[in-house]
Automatic annotation (TrEMBL):
It catalyses: oxidized coenzyme F420-(gamma-L-Glu)(n) + a quinol + H(+) = reduced coenzyme F420-(gamma-L-Glu)(n) + a quinone. One of its GO terms (cellular component) is plasma membrane. It comes from the Bacteria. Residues 161-289 form the Hemerythrin-like domain. GO terms for molecular function: coenzyme F420 binding; oxidoreductase activity. InterPro entries: F420H2_quin_Rdtase, Hemerythrin-like, Split_barrel_FMN-bd. PANTHER family: F420H(2)-DEPENDENT QUINONE REDUCTASE RV1261C (PTHR39428:SF1). This is Nitroreductase family deazaflavin-dependent oxidoreductase. Belongs to the F420H(2)-dependent quinone reductase family. It comes from Streptomyces parvus. Coiled coil: none annotated. NCBIfam families: hi_GC_TIGR00026.
Length: 299
């Protein structure tokens, strides 16, 4: 899709709550904003989708070209994406389906949009099917009125992603052990669901700790110099956790994690160190932030 035409589709989509005319009239479109694997800048792409319950399915067809589209390579590097759907906008974890599940979901897509079968016939490349989870309509986020609330929100997300990654990893190892030599063993490595979740977690954790070290902690230390030992300990823990995060990120560099046993050990180490760090930070920092309004007042 030429860049100027693509931008016109994006503009029309946003101006009309997802309704687009011309060749896309009546098509179920969404806007997917990924982070460029090369530049780190946001990149928005209009894509057709098929709804499957609480999931949206998008296919990296590239019109049957022999290479994956840029947006697919982007989400492998940065799994957290932004989705615009009608007048909704939300973040989602982008997870390519694998094996039999990919084939099942691709058949689901083709049943509703047969043109994707023609794109698959045009290339030797297996067209990836990417799953985007819709937000839980019953989830009620607690109100965030102070910087303490915001810190708890971030910590809750980090703990939740770490718990999901741990549960999914243990389920993978249990399935692998269950084969026990009978029949075909599971594919080597750890699945894309775990890889995408853990990579998104690592990137969010790095961003959070960088912001604390660069902005929040120096400001707070200026107001509370008597807590210098607390801030020194938190910064030292950031460095230690950062080493684990880097080890995990290295293992997550490829689409398939080649050393699942080492990954499992590093994830357990991350769980132990980060949980203790968050508990200590909340004990000493939250009371200082309870009176700081969020979002910050405009200057």
């Amino acid at each position: 899709m030429p860049q100027t035409f693509q931008q016109s589709v994006i503009t029309e989509f946003r101006a009309n709550a997802g309704k687009v005319g011309g060749p896309f009239e009546g098509t179920d479109l969404l806007l997917l904003t990924t982070t460029s694997a090369r530049s780190g800048k946001p990149h928005t792409t209009p894509l057709g989708h098929v709804r499957d319950g609480r999931r949206l399915l998008v296919v990296a067809s590239n019109l049957g070209a022999p290479v994956h589209p840029d947006w697919y390579r982007n989400l492998l590097a940065h799994p957290t994406v932004r989705v615009e759907l009608g007048d909704e906008e939300f973040e989602s974890l982008a997870v390519p389906a694998e094996g039999a599940r990919r084939d099942e979901l691709f058949a689901r897509v083709v049943a509703e949009a047969p043109g994707y079968a023609e794109y698959q016939d045009a290339t030797d490349r297996v067209l990836p099917v990417v799953v985007l989870e819709l937000p839980d309509p019953d989830a009620v986020a607690p109100p965030v009125t102070s910087l303490a609330d915001k810190l708890v929100e971030v910590h809750t997300w980090l703990r939740g992603q770490l718990r999901h990654a741990h549960d999914e990893t243990e389920a993978y190892f249990a399935e692998r052990a269950g084969h026990g030599g009978a029949g075909e063993p599971p594919a080597p490595g750890i699945g894309l669901q775990i890889r995408q979740r853990c990579l998104a977690f690592c990137q969010a954790l790095e961003f959070h700790h960088t912001a604390e070290d660069g902005h929040m902690f120096p400001t707070m230390e200026g107001y509370h110099p008597h807590l210098r030992d607390v801030f020194d300990r938190l910064r030292e823990e950031h460095r230690s956790i950062g080493a684990v995060q880097s080890a995990l990120a290295d293992l997550l560099a490829d689409a398939a994690i080649a050393e699942p046993d080492r990954f499992r050990a590093e994830l357990a180490r991350m769980t132990e160190e980060l949980t203790a760090h968050l508990d200590y930070e909340e004990e000493h920092i939250l009371p200082l932030l309870a009176e700081v309004p969020w979002p910050p007042a405009a200057a």
